[in-house]
């Protein structure tokens, strides 16, 4: 019998489950899909049978919980002959948002690991329970199948104390686990490795600033493949301006909003996480729409863009100081991969740091990793499409293989 060589990657959110089935022999996708509106009215499952080259299948039905969602995934995969019972399946790899200080590596799921992820729920009250329900349901469906938890925080575990510890009372911080953890780690790790490959240099020899600009956005400073600082903190709220999150803000603004504005803590949480950032500044959180409005002369859209790119520039400058020498600045995720205007504005005026964008190369659209700085520039500016699913699959597969 041939070795099992497929990995199912699951990203279970609070109301959706995204999945991809990968063949590890060549990293190809066999199937992918998303179950949306779990626990809400009008659930929907969209399934792409990639290996078969078939039509996308959409099933509209109530999906009361994650168990129902994963049963639906299992049915659709079985319909393609790729079911969870297939002996070709080597593992399920789960994206788990918060690993705290406990999990710094991909980890084989056991009863103890489930309990420890459960203990971290106070740090990620929306995400970790959803991630755990995915793990539990797969355990019921295929108890013998190895499952691997790949943590969004793990790549940032190397950030030194000087960058990870907040300057607040030590005992309070430690008792309540308040420190910088960082997120999007799988993406920062994948993109820094791909960037070194693109430059044709060993990862150990290059310093890279990675800018992951999706709906959520984060920056990291990676020295020789090791993360030394990152912009998200205890939660994904800190750092860059994002689609709906404020990023950095004076913490005393929260006291002001509460004491003077009369907003309750949950209202402020909602304001800063879901109604701020680009959306709060101009009413749109999609950079494409902001681009269109700017072209029509819309002042709020222009200001939102300026605030967004100014914050980026500030972090690039900070991470130049952190790294000392910067070999590459890599842009990734929806905005980073697709918006020449953001890349240009974020790096404008940094020629003195050896960082510049070639306007012609930057304007070229494409899905391949590419360099968009002039050939003679000291620092390469790169556009490197992220692939968190492939990274999760690789880490899961190599862990399962190493266990023999
Ligand atoms: P998520 O964090 O949800 O994974 P993505 O990485 O998919 O997000 O990024 C989503 C964002 O990418 C959208 O908000 C949109 O603004 C932006 N985006 C996608 N395509 C383009 C484009 N062609 N130009 C500018 N921005 C884009």
From TrEMBL:
<keyword id="KW-0479">Metal-binding</keyword>
<feature type="binding site">
    <location>
        <begin position="334"/>
        <end position="338"/>
    </location>
    <ligand>
        <name>ATP</name>
    </ligand>
</feature>
<dbReference type="InterPro" id="IPR043129">
    <property type="entry name" value="ATPase_NBD"/>
</dbReference>
<keyword id="KW-0547">Nucleotide-binding</keyword>
<dbReference type="Pfam" id="PF00871">
    <property type="entry name" value="Acetate_kinase"/>
</dbReference>
<feature type="site" description="Transition state stabilizer">
    <location>
        <position position="245"/>
    </location>
</feature>
<feature type="binding site">
    <location>
        <position position="388"/>
    </location>
    <ligand>
        <name>Mg(2+)</name>
    </ligand>
</feature>
<dbReference type="InterPro" id="IPR023865">
    <property type="entry name" value="Aliphatic_acid_kinase_CS"/>
</dbReference>
<dbReference type="GO" id="GO:0005737">
    <property type="term" value="C:cytoplasm"/>
</dbReference>
<dbReference type="GO" id="GO:0006085">
    <property type="term" value="P:acetyl-CoA biosynthetic process"/>
</dbReference>
<keyword id="KW-0067">ATP-binding</keyword>
<feature type="binding site">
    <location>
        <position position="18"/>
    </location>
    <ligand>
        <name>ATP</name>
    </ligand>
</feature>
<dbReference type="GO" id="GO:0006083">
    <property type="term" value="P:acetate metabolic process"/>
</dbReference>
<feature type="binding site">
    <location>
        <begin position="286"/>
        <end position="288"/>
    </location>
    <ligand>
        <name>ATP</name>
    </ligand>
</feature>
<comment type="subunit">
    <text>Homodimer.</text>
</comment>
<keyword id="KW-0808">Transferase</keyword>
<dbReference type="GO" id="GO:0008776">
    <property type="term" value="F:acetate kinase activity"/>
</dbReference>
<keyword id="KW-0963">Cytoplasm</keyword>
<keyword id="KW-0460">Magnesium</keyword>
<protein>
    <recommendedName>
        <fullName>Acetate kinase</fullName>
        <ecNumber>2.7.2.1</ecNumber>
    </recommendedName>
</protein>
<dbReference type="InterPro" id="IPR004372">
    <property type="entry name" value="Ac/propionate_kinase"/>
</dbReference>
<feature type="binding site">
    <location>
        <position position="11"/>
    </location>
    <ligand>
        <name>Mg(2+)</name>
    </ligand>
</feature>
<feature type="binding site">
    <location>
        <begin position="212"/>
        <end position="216"/>
    </location>
    <ligand>
        <name>ATP</name>
    </ligand>
</feature>
<comment type="function">
    <text>Catalyzes the formation of acetyl phosphate from acetate and ATP. Can also catalyze the reverse reaction.</text>
</comment>
<feature type="site" description="Transition state stabilizer">
    <location>
        <position position="184"/>
    </location>
</feature>
<dbReference type="GO" id="GO:0005524">
    <property type="term" value="F:ATP binding"/>
</dbReference>
<feature type="active site" description="Proton donor/acceptor">
    <location>
        <position position="152"/>
    </location>
</feature>
<feature type="binding site">
    <location>
        <position position="95"/>
    </location>
    <ligand>
        <name>substrate</name>
    </ligand>
</feature>
<comment type="pathway">
    <text>Metabolic intermediate biosynthesis; acetyl-CoA biosynthesis; acetyl-CoA from acetate: step 1/2.</text>
</comment>
<comment type="similarity">
    <text>Belongs to the acetokinase family.</text>
</comment>
<dbReference type="InterPro" id="IPR000890">
    <property type="entry name" value="Aliphatic_acid_kin_short-chain"/>
</dbReference>
<dbReference type="GO" id="GO:0000287">
    <property type="term" value="F:magnesium ion binding"/>
</dbReference>
<keyword id="KW-0418">Kinase</keyword>
